[in-house]
Amino acid sequence: MKLPLPLIQLIEELAKLPSIGKKSAKRLAFSLLLRPEQEALALAEAIVKAREQIRSCSQCFGLTDADLCAICSDPRRDQEILCVVEDPRNIFTIESSGIFKGLYHVLQGAISPIHGIPPEKLRIEELHQRVRLDSIQELILATNPTLEGEATAHYLTELFKENVPTISRIARGMPVGGDLEFTDATTLSRAFEGRTVFSHL
């Protein structure tokens, strides 16, 4: 029996989400249809509201519903230490470990000539402005341990080695080829505690 077109379209859209295959998308679609209408509409409203209200923090480019995110606007954070990550999701992963008390800067990607992402496409100029204006004493490079992440870390080290007293890289507790988003809190804590001065590697 052929599925109704709206159901097919719902399955196709759900299948575009990360880690959701066709079978999982089909199960989710049927689940949404079988739930009370109020619950399905609440989910749809939450998605629309998140898309409309969540934006990039004007300082760190993390996710927020205000001009400045809760971290950037918190005076208790260490203003002289800046942790550089690729993706806004990485901030939430690191925060869940409770190990880091400084500020963040989201590059919104990593250098990848193969995928047409040169340094100019990242938030590196904004990082340069923060380093220049905010008296940053340490840059912690927490880019993912992939080829692109390593290349980005090396590029940033060369770019800022004359401007920042300490440039460090999170330690090798992170698996090579891994992603911060899927790293457990214990591994992440060890990676931060064991970070090394990048220029000495």
TrEMBL record:
GO molecular function: DNA binding; zinc ion binding
Protein name, entry field: Recombination protein RecR
Alphabetical UniProt keywords: DNA damage, DNA recombination, DNA repair, Metal-binding, Zinc, Zinc-finger
UniProt source species: SAR324 cluster bacterium
Record InterPro entries: DNA_Rcmb_RecR, Rcmb_RecR, Rcmb_RecR_Znf, TOPRIM_dom, TOPRIM_RecR
Claim: Transport is one of the keywords in the record: no
HAMAP family: RecR
Gene Ontology biological process terms in this record: DNA recombination; DNA repair
Entry-linked Pfam families: RecR_C, RecR_HhH, RecR_ZnF, Toprim_4
Record Gene3D superfamilies: 3.30.60.80, 3.40.1360.10, 6.10.250.240, RecR Domain 1
Protein family according to the UniProt entry: Belongs to the RecR family.
Domain of life: Bacteria
PANTHER family: RECOMBINATION PROTEIN RECR
UniProt domain Toprim: residue ranges: 80-175
Purpose of the protein: May play a role in DNA repair. It seems to be involved in an RecBC-independent recombinational process of DNA repair. It may act with RecF and RecO.
DNA repair recorded as keyword: yes
Zinc finger C4-type: from-to: 57-72
